Amino acid sequence: MKVVIADKSHIKYAEDICETIAESAQVRGTGIARRTPEYIAAKMENGNAVIALDGNRFAGFCYIEKWGHGKFVANSGLIVHPNYRGKGLAKKIKHKVFEHSRNKFPDAKVFSITTGLAVMKMNSDLGYKPVTFSELTDDQTFWDGCQTCKNYDVLTRTNRKMCLCTGMLYDSKAKNLEEENKGKKEDKKIKEKVFRRLKHIKETMFLKKSKK
User: Membrane-crossing residues (predicted)?
Assistant: First the structure.
């Protein structure tokens, strides 16, 4: 089993990928934005997709979408073929496409909208945070893509403020700032600990001198 960045040599799997995504959504009874084989093929040609292969057999897939003039990217269409589910493959694909997204679009915020608890857990492990839809891309083309989802009426009735999907966001700049602040707090704690220790030593020495 190998998980690689897809290219034009993998276009032959595009139709199978689309069918697997649609069938999976139907079984789960969840909404999904449908994609055509041509759309999937374009993602492969542009190097914006990850595919898992067992020899010459398609095992899993996920692709990258760019929104808001590159300010946001989304990892979409995560799917594992029924024959390969329950083996941790989805997590491997998710990690691969997330890493590829950050390398290819280092300044972009990575976001996800999903109804799947397993995907939410994977996102959380990668550092995504739950957010309101207003914090995601305002690119109308992205939201237009939700029209083929059976829950689209929920999105429109709430003026795009909420839906059955949960919005999640990974912001590398915010993450770095959070880690920097955490580091400063830890440094402050260490300095305070050292200061208290020195203070204790001086007080002890002072008391000894006072007793003499």
Answer: none
